[in-house]
Automatic annotation (TrEMBL):
Domain Response regulatory: start-end pairs: 3-119
UniProt name for this protein: LuxR family two component transcriptional regulator
PROSITE patterns in the cross-refs: HTH_LUXR_1, HTH_LUXR_2, RESPONSE_REGULATORY
Gene3D superfamilies in alphabetical order: 3.40.50.2300
Domain HTH luxR-type residues, every copy: 147-212
Species this protein is from: Actinophytocola oryzae
Amino acid sequence: MLRVLVADDEPLITAGIATVLESAGDIEVVATAADGHTAVTQALRHRPDVVLLDITMPVLDGLAALGELRRQVPAVKAVMLTSFGTEPNVLAALHDGAAGFVLKHCAPDELIRAVRAAHTGDAYLSPEVTRLVLDMVTPAAGRRQRAGERLAVLGERETEIAGLVAQGLSNAEIGRRVHMSEPTIKTYVSRVLSKLGCVNRVEVALLVRDAG
């Protein structure tokens, strides 16, 4: 079972998320939290695979909780719950190592996909969030050049894969696009992450965007 902790200060949302996730059959919600501090303590106690973190929570907000999780429970993957109006926080969380973003009004199957993707290392962004992030990032000339230089270490096929990752495609979708098996694509993505020094797929997307 994939073990999940849900952190949100609205009880109805927390209960709804838990119901959706457990309907998947292979996901168990092992704990909930109404603030960021409790989320960290519950993560230390239950050692979940994935934590769903609301960005705006009392005591310790989602961004601060993400930083503590990265420091105290580095193995856990964090997916941020967000809504429009928190755009600057999206970039901050990505740079702090968030494994993905989903909107609170997303479809149930999208929430399940996001949790599964985070668990397997395939970071997930809701399509709306992907467009929002890319629109926010307008690289200066110097950053564009540095991004281009970093991407230059990739081979032709790796560059193609990086571009498809930047489009928000999953490994399975990339495999269908380039006519390769999903395990092969996973190997390519791992190689791209390693060569670029990126923590997750979101960083790859931002780098590709920076390079134009």
